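Structure in, sequence out. Go:
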């Protein structure tokens, strides 16, 4: 059996970037299970904006210490070369109701309730209307603004469930709190999904599935007209995998916090 002293040494150890040690793996699993259970008790409209302190309070001393150690790591040391965005909380968000889509297998796919700053949502609506007019297709918001609590949960979720406890691999797919464009309360990013539930990662999908869509081709040509820009193209310099579904709003300051533009109202 592993001795108590060995367990203590492994717990005290700084997280390994390539693969967490056995004690840290055990704690990471507990963290995901506790946070997932807590989120599932919440009303659906609170899950994307869950407070970090609310989730942190669910953990014991050992789990809290691991979370702090992980998020104290400089993301650049994990290969992430993006910038820090924000830890500020938004003061004005548009609630976007969940949409139920039918995928190619005839199964339901739900986007869940999402949020976006009003000016970001307005430009998305305008862009979607133009896409429908041009090619007869439209997109839906699969992920919008995320609180730092939500981002923390997703970071550990993918670390445990998808990326084999590798912090360096995880950093290619999901940013730490503060470093995600989804957490920027002003210039938020949107992850998009088409009418057939194609988002590039659901049910074994890959980036190529989204890349091959006519909707993506249209976005490449037209999204900048509506202040949306692809953040992570192929072979990007930020150390992030190709994400054709991820579009960052970066419009002029004059549009920020407006709720009515060119006849498009969200109130």
């Amino acid at each position: 059996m592993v001795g108590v002293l060995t367990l203590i040494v492994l717990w005290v150890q700084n997280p390994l970037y390539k693969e967490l040690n056995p004690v840290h793996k055990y704690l990471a699993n507990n963290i995901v299970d506790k946070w997932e259970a807590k989120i599932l008790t919440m009303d659906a409209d609170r899950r994307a904006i869950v407070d970090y302190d609310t989730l942190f309070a669910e953990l014991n001393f050992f789990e809290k210490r691991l979370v702090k150690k992980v998020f104290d790591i400089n993301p650049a040391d994990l290969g992430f070369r993006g910038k820090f965005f924000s830890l500020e909380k938004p003061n004005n968000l548009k609630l976007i109701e969940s949409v139920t889509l039918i995928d190619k297998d005839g199964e339901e796919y739900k986007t869940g309730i999402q949020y976006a700053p009003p000016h970001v949502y307005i430009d998305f609506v305008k862009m979607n209307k133009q896409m429908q007019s041009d090619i007869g297709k439209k997109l839906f918001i699969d992920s919008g603004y995320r609180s730092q609590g939500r981002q923390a949960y997703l970071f550990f979720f993918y670390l445990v469930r998808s990326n084999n406890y590798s912090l360096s691999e995880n950093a290619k797919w999901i940013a730490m709190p503060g470093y995600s464009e989804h957490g920027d309360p002003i210039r938020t990013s949107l992850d998009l999904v088409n009418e057939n539930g194609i988002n590039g990662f659901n049910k074994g999908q890959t980036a190529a599935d989204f890349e091959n869509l006519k909707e993506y081709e249209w976005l490449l040509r037209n999204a900048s007209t509506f202040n949306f820009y692809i953040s992570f193209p192929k072979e990007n310099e930020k150390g992030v995998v190709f994400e054709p579904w991820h579009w960052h709003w970066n419009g002029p300051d004059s549009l920020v916090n407006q709720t009515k533009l060119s006849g498009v109202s969200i109130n």
